[in-house]
Amino acid sequence: MDWDDARILLAIYRGGTLRAAAALLHVDQATVGRRLRALEQALHARLFLHTPRGYVPTRAAELALPAAEAMESAADQLERLTQGTDERVSGTVRVTTSDTIARAFMMPAIQKLRDAHPDLRIVLTASTQLSNLTRREADIAVRNVRPDSPDLISRRLGRRELGLYASKRYLKQHGEPRRGTAFEGHSVVVYQRAVFGARADTLCGEPFGNARVALEVNSGLMMLEAANRGLGVAELSTYLAQDASSLVRIWPDCAQFYDLWLVMHGDLHRTARVRAVADAIVEVFEQGQEQQATTARSKKA
């Protein structure tokens, strides 16, 4: 089995259908079917059973899967190591982060990069999903979780604060929530459980079991929009909410904190274009930290 055959096996195994596999491989469905038949003939083994629910792997496919994944890992490593020797500040760099981080920090960084390196092309994905850097789904990620993979390197970008906010209109109609009541008599806007997991049952540490959940979102910008429109109390990053004149912070001493991390694969750290993008991101965050410190000092004064 060569790498092209392994890619067919992996794509059908992961996609479950010829159509999904074709989308993963960026080829047409007929090509995937033809190459699967050729692979099965070459191996003298049936790899998948075609059922109404899709393509189900046989025992032969299950046995071949670890070897195919090892070939995929070796191919990815070869690509990363080869790119690591490239010293040109040009080409494509894939960056992934949340929509709020993208708006507040990535856009200024990308603007700087366009001025300094016009041959760079940035592919920005704003999502709450954690991209797999080892499979080249992204070259750089900005996350609120530090990875534990030994293949990845990370740098702490800084600590951010979460606070509780509601619109002036909402507070005029409903008043301010009372602590210790689990937001009884109030509406809240929360993240979908898939986004924050165990933290999905609290807002800045305060349970909201007695509240009416007006809206569940998977986007920080939609959370901001919902709060602005008076749909309920929301947990927002202070850097996001501080410029919204319609919002009021509730219980200012009630806060949650989280760290942000710049993450990339160790093999790509030496690539000039990836380094340039990482440096621009770090610079924007450092400037944000300085502005935050200056604002804090002026308030104390």
UniProtKB/TrEMBL annotation:
Signal peptide: none
GO BP terms, alphabetized: DNA-templated transcription
Domain HTH lysR-type residue range list: 1-58
Pfam families the record matches: HTH_1, LysR_substrate
Taxonomy, superkingdom: Bacteria
Annotated family: Belongs to the LysR transcriptional regulatory family.
Protein name in the entry: LysR family transcriptional regulator
